[in-house]
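Practice set, problem 2.
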Amino acid sequence: MVDTKDYLQWLAKAENDLKAAKLILAGEQLYDISAFHCQQCVEKALKAYVLYHEGIIMETHSLPRLNQRCAKHDHTFLSFADSLHILNSFYIETRYPAVDELIVTRANAESAVDVANRVLEYVKNSLNA
């Protein structure tokens, strides 16, 4: 059960997802799995930010929704909006087979790592973590 209200623990989990994404990207061609971990990193970082400011854990996996909530406290988050819409597609589509399967290229995965890194660093700096 997810119940910790310690935003630093959420940030630590986000950092682990980013590390996993980078390791996977450097290894085998599992670009979809790397991209998924980037989505997870950003989700946890944004949840940490909301938790810090509002004391709640938002029960959503939607990066755009989480980002909008963060933007209520800091409009800079709006600059991430377009990138997070793309990253959001890696939550479900990369984990399950589909007729029209989402193909994640190395360039997509590298871009996802870059976005995740930027968002995580911004959140950490904003929270002095």
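Problem 2, part (b): a different protein.
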Amino acid sequence: LYLTGYDNRRYSAEVRGISLYQIGLIYMSRYNDQRADAKATDYFQRVVREFPGTHAAEHAQARLLAMRQRAREPVQKSARELLATWKPQQNLDLYKTSLDPDMTLLSRRAVLKDRVDEAAELYLLAVNDPAIPAGIKEKALYQLGLMYLAPDNPHPNRDKAIEYLRRQLLDYPEGELSNKAGRHLDQALNVQPR
């Protein structure tokens, strides 16, 4: 899947770079039985080399530093051993009733972990890339609106939510999510700002 994103030359450098970066993260994961630090390093170096000046390259540089540090600390446990003792954040309830049921897991995690700006960057990559299909762009705008309206968001931003939902409705008036976006927009417009 990620190689498809990388191979599509119509996608922007940001999208293509993020695709390679994600592959590097998979190979880097201590929880992956096929972990391969050398492959992860190769992918991160490719991102830096092929997509300089992108956010993906910045993130890849940081991962390359982590890989150098890791080389000094060899793996002591297998992925299975690590998973056996893994304790996910107990306070991260991805299915809280206060989260909109239409939110993706990425959006939910971003809201609950106070990382909405990072998730917004990813969604905006899709929105701003001319080669990304319209349906994906519509969904990305909708997710942006939902994240900024979420009551669990430590930094909600009604104005941003309204902006993204309006853009979604303007750009995709006949889209599959237009009715839902319209309802959320009406609610956001009728709520008094804090």
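Answer key, part (b): Residues 55-71 form the longest helix (17 residues). Residues 6 and 41 are 17 Å apart (CA to CA).
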